[in-house]
Structure formats: C-alpha cells, structure tokens
Amino acid sequence: MARLLRGQIIRGELPPNASLPPETALMERFGISRPSLREAYRVLESEGLITIRRGAQGGARVQAPNSDFAAGYAGLVLQYQGATLRDLADARQIMEPPAAGILARRRDPADIAALRAIVDEEAEHGRDIHWYEPFHIKVVELTGNLTLALFARMTGHLLQLAKARYISHADEAGLPDGTTMVVLAERSHRKLLDFIEAGDAEGAEEFWARHLEAASERLLSSWPDAKVIELLG
After folding, report:
1. Burial of 39 (0-12, 13-18, 19+ CB in 10 A)
2. From the centroid of its chain, how far is CA 215?
3. pLDDT band at residue 225 using 50, 70 and 90 as cut-offs
4. Residue 46: how many CB atoms within 10 A of its CB?
5. Where are the domains of the chain?
6. What distance in Å separates the CA atoms of residue 131 and residue 108, rounded to the nearest whole number?
7. What torsion do the CA atoms of 110, 112, 115, 117 make, to the nearest 10 degrees?
8. What is the arithmetic mean of pLDDT over 107-120?
9. CB 132 within 8 A of CB 185
10. Does the domain formed by 67-232 have CATH 3.40.50.2300?
C-alpha cells in the first residue's frame, strides 16, 4: 500500500495538503488489515510524504516531496559513512565555480536580483554566520539543475553547522578569529555578484574557485582530517 500511495503522491494524483480517506475506507479499498495500514502510514511519514494528526479531527494529510528532507537524510548517510569535512569542501569546489560561470554567461536580471537580496540580508544581520550559507546554495539553485541544487542544500547545511561550531570554539581552541571568515565572505559575495552582473563568466568562475579554496583552507586549518560526525556531534 505504501508503494501505491507514494506513487500517487509523486504523480500529483494526491495533491499537497489533501486528506487521505478514512482508515476504514482505505482498509476496504486495499484489502488490508489495520496494522498493515498503520505500517504503510509509518513508512510514508518517515519519508516526509504524509503527516499524521491524532484525535477526533486527525488523520493522514499529504505533504509534497521535500528536497530539504532528502538533503537532511543524505547528510545523515554521509555522517554514517564517515565523510570528512574536506569531502564536503571539495564537493562545493566542484559544484559552485562552474555554476557561477553559468550565471555570469546568462546575466539574467532575476538571478542578479535574487543574489543581491541575499547579500543585502547578510549586511543587515552583521556577523551572524547563519545568513551566509544561503548565498552558496542559491548560486547553484539558480542554474536550474535540480540534482545539483539538492546536493548544494545538503552540503550547505552541514558546512553551515561546521562553520558555526568553528566560530563558537575559535577563541578557546586558538583558531583564527571566526569573524574574519564572515567579513571575507561578505566581501567575496559582493565581488562575485559584480562579476555576474558584468557578464564575466571566466572571471566569476576563477574568482569563486579561489575564494572557496581559501575559505576551505581556513576552516580546515586545524581540522584537516576531521569527520563530519566528529565536528557536528
């Protein structure tokens, strides 16, 4: 039953926020017992495809497949497999510079406006590291490649947590001042936006590759072989 309902949700036959029929109706329709139905619900809920409300007004409600949910689960798999922080940094180095080049060649006003809005938010929130990761993700998302966008959100989520931990432990661990990372990030984001706005694809790609390499070396300077799970706890 879980497979059939999953297929209907993915094909859009069961739209987001739609309520599934009452349990008795589903049991009769599929010819299954209540325990089997509850097990199917458990599977779909664990996949983020339905939510279950308890009580008289409760029931199962459809949720749209969520890429953030998938990214979070993939992050858990990476941690389990022993992925290192350098793995994540290298993945970003592979994805983002070519994406920056694509945006510069396209020079789409909507892309530029979306990135500028993020940069303006960074300035508004000062030294809060949590506002700097969305820029990286958006650079990849704006290419329109859904597969890369999913990976960008996954790596971005984990790297943001690592950066936040770096800054919170910088003083006691004798690491370089964490605020330096934030200042350089803000400047670099604005510089990349200038390249994109000018339509300089080669400059955008080369600049962003250098920035990511330098940022990775700062982050990895004291944790060269750290595993993701060791850093995030």
Report:
1. middle
2. 19
3. confident
4. 11
5. 2-62, 67-232
6. 23
7. -70
8. 96
9. yes
10. no
What type of residue is 75?
G
How do beta strands 59-62 and 50-53 pair?
antiparallel
> What separation, in Å, do the N-terminal and C-terminal C-alpha atoms of the chain show?
37
Q: What's the rounded Cα separation, in Å, for the pair 86 and 36?
A: 44
- List, for residues 177-192, the tens digit of each pLDDT value: 556 667 788 899 999 9
Rounded Cα–Cα distance for residues 69 and 8 (Å):
19
Residue 140 pLDDT grade (very low, low, confident, very high; cuts 50, 70, 90): very high
Domain 2-62 listed as CATH 3.40.50.720? no
Q: Which amino acid is residue 164, in one-letter code?
A: A
Most confident of 7-11, 130-134, 200-204, 217-221: 200-204
